[in-house]
Design a protein that fits this description.
- There is one protein chain.
- The strands form two sheets. A ten-stranded antiparallel barrel has the order 2-5-6-7-8-9-10-11-12-13. It has a three-stranded antiparallel β-sheet with strand order 1-3-4, with no helix packed on it.
- The chain has one helix and 13 strands.
- It is mainly beta and 251 residues long.
- 4% of the residues lie in helices and 65% in strands.
- The longest helix has 11 residues.
């Protein structure tokens, strides 16, 4: 009897939450490469936003009290966190239009203002992106020869739309950008208590960003600061300050 109560008490302490992560810097540039098939590839080190969708995947049923924003994030993640390294690439397919990849997002960017070779002009672009990914949390608790485990899997669909304005110098482009990002998430949970879900969650992030980037062939570098307004169902409205750094090569 004592051993059973002891086991239950330990299980009650083994609460495990389930969170998903979003990159908090998107480097929405106002310029597109001048010539067809020009582009770039780069590594990005950026802050992340972590959204806790399930407060305890071990409870019966799983506890979904409130969506939490950045409640389990490390302090280093707020300053171009090394925990969040991603990949960006782009290629110009038509005059003023490029296709790009940002981690799991595929997008199109159209430079509507002053596309071409001239410098010292105002430039502007519109963008849209879409992508899907899955993130999983597993938790195992061992007690003697017995094991209890739980698994939460979220299928995430993300859509983006935005605008960017800047001034094009010979090598650098300082810019301001705005992105509206919408997320739809379906989460399923399996544990020793059974199978639960799928649970549906929706949220949106609005990014107001200031950046500075090179735009010529050769070394591609950029730095960006973003203020993010964050709102999810079952959550309070939150804000976040984020930083990102990009380093790569343009051809």
């Amino acid at each position: 009897m004592f051993r059973a109560l002891f086991a239950l008490s330990l299980l009650s302490l083994s609460a495990c939450s389930h969170s998903i992560s979003m990159r908090a810097s998107h480097f929405n540039m106002p310029v597109v490469s001048n010539e067809q098939w020009q582009g770039h590839a780069a590594m990005v080190m950026a802050s992340e936003t972590r959204v806790t969708l399930v407060n305890d995947i071990n409870s019966n049923p799983p506890l979904r009290d409130k969506v939490l924003i950045n409640s389990d994030i490390d302090a280093s993640d707020f300053v171009a966190g090394a925990n969040n390294i991603g990949f960006d690439a782009s290629v110009s397919v038509f005059k003023g239009i490029e296709v790009y990849l940002e981690n799991f997002l595929w997008g199109v960017r159209f430079q509507f203002l002053n596309h071409g070779t001239q410098n010292r002009v105002w430039v502007g672009s519109l963008m849209g992106a879409y992508g899907t990914k899955s993130e999983t949390t597993t938790d195992a608790f061992y007690l003697g020869n017995n094991t209890t485990d739980a698994k939460a899997k979220s299928d995430i669909t993300t859509s983006q739309a935005g605008v960017s304005l800047g001034y094009k110098y010979e090598y650098l482009v300082p810019y301001f950008s705005y992105i509206y990002e919408a997320h739809k998430v379906k989460t399923s949970i399996t544990s020793t208590n059974g199978t639960f879900g799928p649970y549906n969650d929706e949220g949106n992030h609005s990014y107001y960003s200031l950046g500075l980037s090179t735009h010529q062939k050769g070394l591609r570098t950029a730095i960006e600061y973003s203020h993010i307004d964050i709102k999810w169902d079952r959550s309070d409205r939150e804000t976040q300050e984020a930083f990102g750094i990009k380093l790569g090569f343009a051809w």
